[in-house]
């Protein structure tokens, strides 16, 4: 099923409002979910709406949150999310970070007590759109096994980085610190497809290809990915004074309670370093050089991070719209808010 941007965003917004989100919050959430689906990040698009709707309907996302931003220094601040919608909190916190970075050269804005905020590349791209450089990190529920361990301890803890170029292109690096984001496994489940045996392990720690048997995800690059996921948790969790490591709430544990997640945005103004013009010129040059590199057998081109996501977006519209799994479309057009499928489920249930 292919949908236009307006149609998909409209259906998601309507469902989220039906679940209880107010207009502005549903609009921002649906916009960011559409941003993900149109770039082929289906793991963080419409597939999530039913879960969010259940959590909103059961009270686990505050529908009228008391957001509060406290500036703690010229370049730092803390955004209290009151367990409101994570998409809205992360967007508003990035707006603050952008404002402060323009004023003071650098801004470090942490968020406390927010719910899931989806594809975090959306927020770093906001800064690149304003000629700034940004990094964002956030916590997610424990799902990854540390090297030599037996239990999931850290989440898929993503990192995103974005920067502008001189010609409108943007580098948007946006990745989970596990081999695959959990949402990619959800997406494979929803499509009835198998997964490569390098993504995850079963209850006994053996590699699995059936996405329904996943019991823990593997960090990227062994101990190095494990170090990165710890660093993400330190910056966005321990530093924010919210639950950390294995104490981070599980997505499906109790949909009536706030998730208390942490996130951090760091934004820098190139004018405070080499100067904006030189920075953007050299960013364009580095992207051009990467694109021009001779390729190894079996590859058509060397891409810079985020390039393929933009190509997927352009191709989706050429092909008649954003591709959505039929069962998700059926849910979106139905009158049902949710099917009670997520609450109190094992973290790997859905
Ligand atoms: P991915 O594996 O599809 O891509 C990771 C990065 O590598 C991207 O920046 C992509 O542009 C780049 N890339 C991939 N192939 C490339 C190639 N051949 N050449 C150049 N660059 C290439 O992304 P992943 O790790 O599956 O994450 C998907 C989404 O899930 C992200 O938007 C992330 O923010 C989100 N996420 C959110 C979480 C949350 O709790 N909020 C948790 C984990 C992930």
Automatic annotation (TrEMBL):
Any stretches that span the bilayer, and where are they?
none
Q: Say which domain of life the source belongs to.
A: Bacteria
Show the Pfam families listed in the entry. Answer: Ldh_2 (PF02615)
Q: Does the keyword Protein biosynthesis apply?
A: no
Enumerate the InterPro entries for this protein: Mal/L-sulf/L-lact_DH-like_ah, Mal/L-sulf/L-lact_DH-like_NADP, Mal/L-sulfo/L-lacto_DH-like_sf, Malate/L-lactate_DH-like, Ureidoglycolate_dehydrogenase
Keyword field:
Oxidoreductase
Enzyme Commission code = 1.1.1.154
MF GO annotations: ureidoglycolate dehydrogenase activity
Q: Which residues form a coiled coil?
A: none
Similarity-based family: Belongs to the LDH2/MDH2 oxidoreductase family.
What protein name does the entry list?
Answer: Ureidoglycolate dehydrogenase
Task: Recall the taxonomic lineage recorded for the source organism.
Answer: Bacteria, Bacillati, Bacillota, Clostridia, Lachnospirales
- Which gene produces this protein? allD
């Amino acid at each position: 099923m292919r949908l236009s941007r307006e149609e998909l965003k409209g259906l998601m917004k309507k469902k989220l409002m039906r679940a209880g989100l107010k207009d502005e919050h549903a609009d921002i959430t649906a916009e960011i979910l559409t941003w993900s689906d149109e770039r082929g990040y289906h793991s963080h698009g419409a597939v999530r709406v039913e879960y969010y709707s259940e959590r909103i309907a059961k009270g686990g996302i505050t529908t009228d949150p008391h957001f509060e931003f406290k500036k703690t220094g010229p370049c730092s601040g803390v955004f209290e999310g009151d367990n409101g919608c994570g998409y809205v909190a992360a967007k508003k916190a990035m707006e603050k970070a952008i404002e402060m970075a323009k004023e003071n050269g650098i801004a470090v804005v942490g968020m406390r007590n927010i719910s899931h905020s989806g594809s975090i590349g959306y927020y770093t791209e906001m800064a690149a759109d304003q000629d700034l450089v940004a990094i964002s990190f956030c916590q997610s529920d424990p799902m990854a096994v540390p090297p030599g361990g037996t239990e999931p301890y850290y989440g898929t803890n993503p990192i995103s980085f974005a920067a502008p170029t001189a010609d409108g292109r943007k580098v948007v690096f946006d990745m989970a610190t596990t081999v695959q984001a959990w949402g990619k496994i959800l997406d494979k489940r929803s499509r009835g497809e198998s997964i490569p045996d390098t993504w995850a392990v079963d209850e006994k720690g053996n590699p699995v290809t059936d996405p329904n048997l996943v019991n823990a995800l593997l960090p990227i690059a062994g101990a190095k990915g494990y170090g990165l996921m710890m660093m993400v948790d330190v910056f966005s969790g321990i530093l924010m004074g919210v639950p950390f490591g294995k104490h981070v709430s599980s997505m499906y544990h109790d949909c009536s309670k706030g998730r208390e997640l942490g996130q951090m945005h760091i934004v820098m103004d190139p004018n405070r370093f080499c100067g904006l013009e030189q920075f953007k010129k050299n960013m364009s040059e580095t992207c051009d050089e990467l694109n021009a590199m001779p390729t190894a057998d079996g590859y058509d081109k060397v891409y810079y991070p985020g390039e393929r996501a933009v190509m997927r977006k352009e191709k989706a519209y050429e092909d008649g719209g954003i591709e959505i799994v039929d069962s998700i479309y059926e849910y979106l057009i139905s009158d049902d808010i949710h099917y009670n499928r997520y609450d109190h489920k094992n973290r790997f249930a859905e």
